[in-house]
From TrEMBL:
Compositional bias ranges of the Basic and acidic residues kind: 28-52
Organism from which the protein derives: Capitella teleta (Polychaete worm)
Region Disordered, residue ranges: 26-58
Domain MITD1 C-terminal phospholipase D-like: 132-276
Top-rank taxon, per record: Eukaryota
InterPro entries for the chain: MITD1_C, MITD1_C_sf
UniProt cross-references to Pfam families, sorted A to Z: MIT_C (PF16565)
Protein name per UniProt: MITD1 C-terminal phospholipase D-like domain-containing protein
Amino acid sequence: MSNHRQFHDDLSSDTPATEVQILQNENEDLRTKLEKSERQNRQLEKRAKESTKGQLLQENAELKEKISQMENEPQSFARSQPNNTEERVIPATLDTNLLSLASPTQVTDQEPVPPSFNSNHKEILIPEDSTGYDYPTIFYMPFKFRTEQVRVVDPYIRLWYQINNFERFCGDLVDHANMNKMGLGKITLTTCKADEANVEEQNRRFERLGKDWLQRRHGIELELIWADDKLLHHRHIDFCNGWKVLIDRGLDIYKPTTLKVPNDKFPCRQTKVDIIYHP
């Protein structure tokens, strides 16, 4: 009886020790797996950070390169011109195309034909939704030289945001005219009448721009030439100093927005700009 009790006591005392050992082993295995998992997670996080950092560094380098190209673009264009370009005195006369401004102010028979220039030429491709293409950037070279008259031919200066674009162009042109002593005296706009719902606003804003701002404040005349929208299609800006700018979309290169942002922050529509110099 005592032997049986001793055996039972020994069995009872061994069982808890065995279970404890098993639990300890399981816990040790779990800790090992946890540590391994944590090491793997740290390695993955490190790789992700290194990958993100590499991508950011590459993107940063590409952005710097694009900015450098944009900053150097006007200078490289200027260097491509003849050495005597800046020293040349532009006569106070209009080229053949601008002389047509003396024609009657109602154009109904045919569209003015832009002159054919075989001369210095630069092309700018503006991507969709891009920014940084305000008018002073596009018209960098024409704005540098003396010009008494500027002619804008654009059939789509009709809606509120298109008129906004024309007002911005006039504002930038006047700023550079005053800064560079361009001698600007007249801006001529050849465009088309808006539809019945918008023509009143079109007339009112042109009246305010021409008389209240250009004429009264700066002594610059705004001449309006109304063209037949069935005949007028080409869009171009002529400067009487020999520069001509052709834009596929005319001045309407920005997407409409009511937000007040700097002009160079407006998102653009995709378009092509040709800048031509004809002495």
